[in-house]
Amino acid sequence: MTESVIKVNNPLLLFENLTIKYDTGIVAVKDINAGIKENSITAIMGPSGCGKSTLLRAVNRLLELYGNVKITGKIYLKNNDILSMNPMKLRRRIGMVFQQPNPFPTLSISDNVLAGYKLNGIRLKKRDREDIVEKSLKNVSLWNEVKDHLHTKPTLSGGQQQRLCIARALANNPEIILMDEPTSALDPIATSKIEDLLVQLKE
Fold first, then answer.
1. Per residue in 89-148, pLDDT tens?
2. What is the pLDDT of residue 188?
3. Rounded to whole angstroms, how far apart are CA atoms 84 and 201?
4. Residue 45 burial class via C-beta count within 10 angstroms: exposed 0-12, middle 13-18, buried 19 and up
5. Which among 39, 24, 55, 87 is positioned nearest to 200, based on CA atoms?
6. Distance CA 8, CA 14 (A)
């Protein structure tokens, strides 16, 4: 992905001269200058291997976990430099949904939704936990399908698992949700539900 320039007034997310290079010498992203506006759905398109996933992982500070990547340039979230922020606090503001659904298999459906709070050491009252779980699952049209099994480990279809992962991201009230081809492994019906959900969230 090279030399992209997208201008947006008062962007929620801003890239300035962003370049991402692996220690093998491969430049995955080069000179990206782009703004993403609030309350919008923005698609990053390109052939396999062009750097789309790398860019998303840079925004969520996941690339640093690999230790073989050099990032130059700036990424701003509402004028705050993402690369200088606490990664855990950043990930509460920027959620991530991956290509393959990845609910935590040892946690119940309810605890999956609340995982972000537990990982950040945030304690909630019982009523608050219940409200967050119900609201998040309703937002992804999953509540009626799982409300009688909230405290059991998830035995869900692929589409249900992906919606649970989206509910987990929504539970933290993020300002941005990054999605890396979230429907590519799903059937057409499950894909349609998630596409409809994205339009509802934007509104």
1. 898 899 999 888 899 999 999 999 999 898 888 899 999 999 999 999 998 889 999 999
2. 86
3. 29
4. exposed
5. 39
6. 9
In 3D space, the residue among 52, 129, 65 whose CA is nearest the CA of residue 91 turns out to be 65
Q: What is the pLDDT of residue 194?
A: 79
Tokens of 103: 């609910």
Rounded Cα gap, residues 10 and 59, in angstroms: 18
pLDDT for residue 145? 94
Query: What type of residue sits at position 4?
Result: S
Tell me how far apart the alpha carbons of residues 189 and 203 are, in angstroms, rounded to a whole number. Answer: 22
Task: Mark out the alpha helices in the chain (DSSP H runs).
Answer: 52-59, 87-93, 109-113, 115-119, 126-139, 143-146, 158-170, 188-202
**pLDDT tens string 153-174:** 888 988 899 899 999 999 998 9
Going by pLDDT thresholds of 50, 70 and 90, the confidence category of residue 60 is very high
Residues 6+ apart with CB under 8 A from 35: 6, 7, 8, 9, 11, 13, 14, 15
Interatomic CA distance for residues 57 and 121, integer angstroms: 23
Backbone φ and ψ of 108, nearest 5°: -70, 170
What is the rounded CA–CA span in Å between residue 107 and residue 124? 17
Instruction: Report the alpha-carbon distance of residue 94 to residue 142 in Å, rounded.
Output: 22
**Which of these, 202, 182, 190, 203, lies nearest to 42 by C-alpha position?**
202
What are the tokens at 149? 């099994």
